[in-house]
Automatic annotation (TrEMBL):
Domain DUF4143 span(s) in chain numbering: 170-329
Record protein name field: ATP-binding protein
Molecular function (Gene Ontology), one example: ATP binding
Pfam families named in the record: AAA_14, DUF4143
Length: 382
């Protein structure tokens, strides 16, 4: 991506995956960033360390012209504990996730933004061309560019294995001291087995025989390298019994499927514990990606009342307007599937724009006032 941008801007492209560039950046960062025309595009900038970021800060303080530097990395490098400087007020941050299904389908229609402005129009969509097994194939394929281009599940599994090894043994080790990298791998595997579930650090610590503070720290590291995302609990003080624990989602379902050793055939089996959680994470990840290019700010949450109704994903605009999403891994829907959305609608009143149940069946179906069942593919294929 940076190389393409550099071809358009005619600046200076450098990647710190290159050992010589990395050594130069660490040895004399001031000289390193002084050479070459602007903009300077530096990939894997987190590998340059604290002194490089401080040199960039000094440069932009001396010359306040915008767009001098474009920094990229495979981690949230400005928030890592190894850096003393996060460039506040000096840098804009754009998170670039793996492909969305909308991008892969070459579609320009964003379901999320349309749902806020013209939700009723979405009810007129025709039948989906996707069958249930197609979704399982997409889930296990994942959304990283390399596995998307591969036809063999065996090749994908090998890619995921080497990718995880590189992230855990290189990226995380460079930004944080960890006692034992195998613990991180075990935690990630357990996270994949519990994707789309609320985080319980006490139980996780017990399962892995780690201290709770270590589990919390390791989870934050996994989020920093974009392997997991936290979906916070939503509340408008509608009830004191609302849960406050976030949900954890593995950010790529192909990676999650690899970690729990399941393929599309396994997800289609009559009994598949991984099916529901992976389908839910697949939908949440797709909507999270759409939220990043929404024409207006959208924050994502989950909502659950203790021993009561729940909604898998709550999308909220800054004006207080809400859309709710429930995810079902079945191809048949009934009114009970709308229980959480109905409760949320009735409590919010006019602030509730619409509630959607995303399922693996083919048809868009109305279930009354501001409640609609949609094929999962409606999120990108309209």
């Amino acid at each position: 991506m940076l190389q393409q941008l550099n071809a358009e801007r005619q600046g200076t492209y450098l990647t710190l995956d290159d050992g010589a560039f990395r050594a130069s950046a660490r040895a004399d960062p001031g000289v390193f960033i002084a050479d070459g025309p602007r903009p300077m595009l530096i990939d894997e900038v987190q590998r340059g360390g604290d002194d490089l970021v401080l040199a960039i800060k000094s440069a932009v303080d001396r010359d306040t012209q915008r767009g001098q530097f474009v920094l990229a990395g495979s981690t949230r490098f400005l928030s890592t504990p190894s850096l003393s400087e996060s460039l506040p007020g000096r840098a804009g941050i754009l998170e670039v996730w793996p492909f969305s299904e909308q991008e892969l389908a070459d579609s320009t229609a964003s379901f999320l933004s349309t749902a806020f402005s013209q939700a009723d129009e979405l009810r007129s969509a025709g039948p989906s061309k996707y069958e249930r097994h197609d979704y399982f194939e997409l889930i296990c394929r994942g959304s990283y560019p390399e596995p998307v281009a591969m036809r063999s599940q065996l090749a994908r599994d090998e890619w995921y294995r080497t990718y995880l090894q590189a992230v855990i043994d290189t990226d995380i080790r460079e930004m944080a001291r960890i006692e034992e990298s195998s613990n991180l791998g075990q935690l990630l595997q357990l996270s994949a087995a519990n994707t789309a579930q609320e985080i319980n650090t006490v139980k996780t610590a017990s399962d892995l025989q780690l201290h709770r503070t270590t589990v919390t720290r390791y989870l934050n590291l996994l989020e920093t390298v974009f392997l997991i995302r936290f979906l916070p609990a939503w509340s408008r003080n509608l009830t004191a019994r609302t849960t406050h624990r976030p949900k954890l989602h593995v950010t790529d379902t192909g990676l999650a499927a690899h970690l729990v050793s399941v393929d599309a055939e396994g997800l289609a089996a009559r009994v598949s514990p991984a099916r529901g959680p992976l389908v839910e994470s697949f939908v949440v990840n797709e909507l999270a990606k759409q939220a990043t290019w929404s024409p207006f700010p959208v924050r994502l949450y989950h909502w659950r009342v203790s021993r009561g109704p729940e909604v898998d994903l709550v999308a909220e605009r800054t004006n207080g307007r809400i859309i709710g999403f429930e995810v079902k891994s079945t191809d048949a829907i009934n009114r009970d599937d709308f229980r959480g959305l109905t409760t949320l609608r009735d409590r919010l009143g006019d602030d509730f724009v619409h509630g959607f149940v995303c399922y693996t069946g083919p048809r868009t179906l109305s279930f009354g006032d501001r409640l609609t069942a949609i094929p999962i593919s409606a999120l990108w294929d309209r």
